[in-house]
């Protein structure tokens, strides 16, 4: 049941007792951060509830013309099917594909049960999406034993109490723990001893590092760098040219010296606003102005809560009830209204032909992170800084003088609309479902 494939044995086995050890006051460092992620989460729930589907290529997602795969079972992945792929493509890859419509309420409930199990065992749980969390297991060690014992216990409880497979990665750094859990999938566990971190990472493609997006991958490839081992050999200046302010963090990661642990606990993983109108909105300038105001409002909520968001979602509903939800993943997490606005307006520009009359509109930010860890670094990129500073100052003024005191030029009725923003770029992906 608890297939432990690919497990790297704990550090002690690779660090024989040497006399020099006594010169170092550091105790042998244990991997204290675990990352647990459910396997093919939505699809696994559907297979659990319809066991005749076991072993078949199963996907959860919309079956319509614009349908997209939300989750793909591992048998479906063997045929090349992936999340965010158009359903039509998935059907071509697997003519015997089983398509199950999503049951978001059920997944949310199970998500809460998973998090409940994690919270039973480990006090410090940082949930980062519907099916995954980071855990700081150092304090739980005295009670439950070493990290691999805790990881196995969690996987076993999720399996026996919820009937679902999950995978666990462990490391001294949260970023490496997440990479390890992905390598352990499906239904596995991979704990990387501190001293073997660089060795574990060396053969992996640079794209496994979160924050190294498609553009960075291309830039590195032009320098002949494909793996993390090769990235380690790059001079820091060259790395900075490709990765910008992220470079030092990525370099520490590649070296195995990163020790970034849990961030602040993020309970509300998304926040947003939506509005319904009695009369349909038909004027594009008006619609655009209203979603701009919403983006600003959401950004303000983010800043008030001390968060940055990785994903922004635009929801539109027409008079006949047709609802459209489109998400955009930001290259850098942000709390800037200007950035959120660029993305939601671009999403709307793309969809407006199919939704000429709008009854309801909403903007939601998700994949929240505490501002000040990864987020703050990201905000230092380019012009975002200016906007966030300006916006923080506007927040302060609003707090002092009331909400009517300030608004941006283009949101005032009658003001000229802002220029069309650039498209969000290659990091954007269509989402069949809003992340709960
Ligand atoms: P993931 O954990 O990214 O993927 P997964 O659990 O399906 O598969 P893996 O074994 O690789 O972890 O996402 C969790 C759920 O979130 C997923 O089951 C469905 C939903 N989801 C979407 O709705 N759209 C998407 O584009 C992605 C990536 C996930
Ligand atoms: Mg998952
Ligand atoms: Mg996940």
UniProtKB/TrEMBL annotation:
Site (Substrate discrimination): 42
Cofactor: Mg(2+)
Region Disordered, residue ranges: 1-30, 399-436
Entry keyword annotation includes Metal-binding: yes
Record: residues binding Mg(2+): 37, 131
Top EC class for this record: transferase
Protein purpose: Poorly processive, error-prone DNA polymerase involved in untargeted mutagenesis. Copies undamaged DNA at stalled replication forks, which arise in vivo from mismatched or misaligned primer ends. These misaligned primers can be extended by PolIV. Exhibits no 3'-5' exonuclease (proofreading) activity. May be involved in translesional synthesis, in conjunction with the beta clamp from PolIII.
Entry similarity comment: Belongs to the DNA polymerase type-Y family.
Protein name: DNA polymerase IV
């Amino acid at each position: 049941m608890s297939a432990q494939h690919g497990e790297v044995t704990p550090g002690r086995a690779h660090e024989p007792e040497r006399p020099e050890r006594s010169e170092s006051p550091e105790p042998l460092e244990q991997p204290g951060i675990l990352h647990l992620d459910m396997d093919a989460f939505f699809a696994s729930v559907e297979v659990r509830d319809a066991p005749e589907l076991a072993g078949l290529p199963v996907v959860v997602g919309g079956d319509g013309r614009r349908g997209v795969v939300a989750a793909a079972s591992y048998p479906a992945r063997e045929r090349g099917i992936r999340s965010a792929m158009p359903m039509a493509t998935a059907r071509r890859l697997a003519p015997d594909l089983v398509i199950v419509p999503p049951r978001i309420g059920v997944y949310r409930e199970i998500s809460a049960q998973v998090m409940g199990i994690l919270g039973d065992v480990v006090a410090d749980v940082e949930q980062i999406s519907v099916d995954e969390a980071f855990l700081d297991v150092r304090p739980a060690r005295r009670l439950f034993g070493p990290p691999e014992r805790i990881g196995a216990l969690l996987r076993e409880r999720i399996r026996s109490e919820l009937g679902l497979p999950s995978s666990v990665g462990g490391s001294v750094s949260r970023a490496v723990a997440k990479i390890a859990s992905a390598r352990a999938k499906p239904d596995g566990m991979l704990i990387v001893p501190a001293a073997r971190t660089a060795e574990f990472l060396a053969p992996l493609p640079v794209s496994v590092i979160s924050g190294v997006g498609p553009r960075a991958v291309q830039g590195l490839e032009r320098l002949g760098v494909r793996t993390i081992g090769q990235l380690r050999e790059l001079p820091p200046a060259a790395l900075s040219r490709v990765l910008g302010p992220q470079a030092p963090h990525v370099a520490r990661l590649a070296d195995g010296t990163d020790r970034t642990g849990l961030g602040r606990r993020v309970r509300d993983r998304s926040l947003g606003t939506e509005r319904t109108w009695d009369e349909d909105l038909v004027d594009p300038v008006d619609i655009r102005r209203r979603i701009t105001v919403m983006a600003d409002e959401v950004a303000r909520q983010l800043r008030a809560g001390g968060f940055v968001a990785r994903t922004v979602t635009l929801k539109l509903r027409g008079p006949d009830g047709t609802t459209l939800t489109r998400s955009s993943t930001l290259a850098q997490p942000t709390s800037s209204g200007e950035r959120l606005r660029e993305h939601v307006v671009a999403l709307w520009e793309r969809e407006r032909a199919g939704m000429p009359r709008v009854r309801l509109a909403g903007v939601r930010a998700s994949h929240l992170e505490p501002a000040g860890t990864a987020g703050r670094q990201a905000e230092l990129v380019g012009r975002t800084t200016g906007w966030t500073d300006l916006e923080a100052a506007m927040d302060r003024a609003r707090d002092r003088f009331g909400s009517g005191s300030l608004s941006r030029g283009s949101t005032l009725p009658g003001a000229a609309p802002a220029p069309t923003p650039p498209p969000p770029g290659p990091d954007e992906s269509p989402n069949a479902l809003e992340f709960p």
